[in-house]
Specification:
3 helices; rod-shaped; 183 residues; Methane Monooxygenase Hydroxylase, Chain G, domain 1; two-stranded antiparallel sheet; mainly alpha; 4% strand
């Protein structure tokens, strides 16, 4: 059988390989919202250039509103606790002066009052932080102090001169908050 012969020609052979990859921009930023929730609207699309302060998306505010309402309810409940602690402290002072109770009972009433003041202060701060996270105007510190003093006034029927209250101390960020710093 005869064999056929052909001339071989030199040709480039294409080599290719497939890879999975992710292309990232050198000029990008990670975005983390300050609040949790479901995204209800996206204002930009991938690749858009945006300036600082430009809204990127809208988060459903229902969860934050519920959290704020819960914190405000806790604050109101703590006002009632503070009122009761003040009444008990006043009662304990009178009973101790009359020699009916031990000094330790008066100390316990004082500690309960100071704890109630601190807890109310903490709840006021939490409400303020939640309002700030929602973009609502924050409440100035003196307004928070006034709210605590108003809570005390309500329990006394507005007669502040009968039971003078020391102002709630200002605590700087990072400073230790001890019982000895409370009124």
């Amino acid at each position: 059988m005869p064999v056929q012969v052909q001339v071989v020609q030199s040709k480039p052979i294409a080599q290719s390989t497939e890879y999975l990859s992710l292309l990232k921009s050198r000029h990008s930023a990670s975005i983390n919202p300050q609040v949790e929730g479901y995204i209800t609207k996206i204002f930009v699309k991938s690749g858009d250039r945006v300036d600082g302060g430009t809204p990127l998306l809208q988060i459903d505010p229902l969860k934050q509103e519920a959290t704020l309402s819960s914190q405000e309810a806790s604050r109101l409940a703590q006002e009632a606790n503070l009122n009761l602690a003040r009444i008990n402290l006043d009662r304990a002072k009178k009973l101790w002066e009359a020699g009916v109770i031990a000094k330790s009972d008066l100390d316990n009433a004082q500690t309960n009052y100071e704890t109630a003041v601190a807890q109310l202060k903490s709840l006021e701060q939490q409400v303020q932080q939640q309002r700030a996270a929602q973009g609502q105007a924050p409440i100035p510190q003196d307004a928070l102090d006034q709210a605590v003093n108003r809570a005390l006034d309500r329990h006394r029927g507005g007669h502040r001169h009968h039971h003078p209250v020391q102002p709630v101390p200002q605590l700087d960020a990072g400073s230790p908050a001890g019982v000895d710093q409370l009124p």
